[in-house]
Amino acid sequence: MFINNDVTKAAEMEERHVIKMTDPKHPVILSTEDLHVFYGKKEALFEGDLEFASNQITALIGPSGSGKSTFLRSLNRMNDRIATVTGRIMYRGVDINQPAVDV
């Protein structure tokens, strides 16, 4: 779950709001596992575990300052020189968050 403590308080997701990607027609093509983003000592994103299905549209919705843009910049590694990103960003089975991977 992504939470910016300056904007909102942590809230646990109710099970009815969690969708599992089990449809074989649309396998997971991109996922994040335990993604954290830090600007210096300030943690901007916490425990980011998301899955994106192939050939599907996904929307990230949230209030200003909730971390949507930070998350997207982390996926395409635009934060490499600005922030510290930990965790795994898996694209087609490859962890693209590794420094050796040229994206």
Structural notes for this entry:
With 103 residues, the protein is mainly beta. The chain has one domain (15-95). It has 1 helix and 4 strands. The chain has one helix at 68-75, and strands at residues 28-39, 42-53, 84-91, 94-95. A 4-stranded antiparallel β-sheet has the order 2-1-3-4, covered by helices on one side. It is globular, with a radius of gyration of 14 Å. It comes from Levilactobacillus brevis ATCC 14869 = DSM 20054. Residues 49-98 form the ABC transporter domain. One of its GO terms (biological process) is phosphate ion transport. InterPro entries: ABC_transporter-like_ATP-bd, P-loop_NTPase.
Helix and strand layout, with pairings?
Layout: E1 28-39, E2 42-53, H1 68-75, E3 84-91, E4 94-95
Antiparallel strand pairs: 1-2, 1-3, 3-4
Entry summary:
The chain is built from 1 helix and 4 strands, in the order ββαββ. The chain has 103 residues and is mainly β.
Percent helix among the residues? Answer: under 10%
What is the average of the pLDDT values? Answer: 82
Output the helix-strand order.
Answer: EEHEE
Strand content: 25-35%
Strand order of the largest sheet: 2-1-3-4
- The quaternary organization reads as single chain
Class from helix and strand fractions: mainly beta
Number of helices: 1
